[in-house]
Design goal:
The protein is an alpha/beta fold. It is built from 7 helices and 12 strands.
Length: 256
């Protein structure tokens, strides 16, 4: 089932019978369009189905939470959205670009240009300062060094860490490290922010701070934000909630 975004109502609805084209408000294409996406793996002598014919539309500027049990397909779906893998069948489109048929170079370019990633484990380099970790987003070398430094420090300031730019990760709390990771994801001004269990290793108070930061980023920058989480308290703060289990995607209504 494909879900559409309506101009007068932020609650998605199922597509009408035979409806195949989805247009977001203002006549612009959605950020993501997944059509009949399957992903299977061979595990010893059996075939494992990670995604089972997923149809999904995510309008540009929407904040979406994806929940589900371990092994239900969350990480695989996020890999499709992040241009990190290709489906076994079906199509994945990011704006006007079809990722499912793209080569490795095109996928890498899409990741560098359009997508910011935030992970549970922060993925910071321990020997680099906060600012230097943010600068690693410019690893392709196309941005002059002075500009990299300026943008990295501005990104840290935007997440409340201007005074921690020269600190190593070991000198930062878990919440501060995640803020550095968010700054790194945002520094190249992507269209999409994908967060994989971004609060999974944080205490409750810090979790709420990080979710509040992500909400602020979503509202202020107009980003499309997709959060994979086990935490219902995090998921309920998203504009839209989805659940994936057994590779099948369902929409969760308010209060679910």
């Amino acid at each position: 089932m494909t879900y559409l975004h309506q101009a007068t109502d932020t609650t998605p609805r199922p597509a009408a019978a035979g409806e195949t084209t989805t247009i977001a408000p203002g006549g612009t294409p959605p950020m993501y369009t997944l059509t009949a996406v399957t992903k299977t793996y061979q595990q010893k002598k059996r075939t494992v189905t990670a995604l089972a014919g997923v149809d999904l539309v995510i309008p540009a500027g929407q904040m979406v939470a994806i929940q589900g049990p371990t092994g239900g397909g969350k990480s695989t779906l996020l890999q499709m959205l992040g241009a990190l893998d290709r489906p076994t069948s079906g199509t994945v489109r990011l704006g006007d670009s079809e990722l499912s048929a793209a080569g490795d170079h095109a996928l890498a370019a899409a990741r560098a240009r359009e997508i910011g990633f935030v992970f549970q484990g922060f993925n910071l380099i321990p020997t680099l300062t906060a600012a230097e970790n943010v600068e690693t987003a410019f690893a392709d070398g196309s941005t002059p060094r002075a500009e990299r430094r300026e943008k990295a420090r501005a990104a840290l300031a935007s997440v409340g860490l201007a005074e921690r730019a020269d600190h190593l990760p070991s000198e930062l709390s878990g919440g501060q490290q995640q803020r550095v990771a968010i700054a790194r994801a945002l520094v190249k001004e992507p269209s999409v922010l994908l967060a994989d269990e971004p609060t999974g290793s944080l205490d409750e108070a810090t979790r709420d701070e990080i979710v509040g930061l992500l909400e602020g980023v979503w509202r202020d920058r107009g980003l499309t934000v997709v959060i994979v989480t086990h935490d219902s308290a995090v998921a309920r703060r998203a504009q839209r909630r989805l659940r994936i289990a057994g590779g099948e995607l369902t929409e969760l209504g308010p209060g679910a």
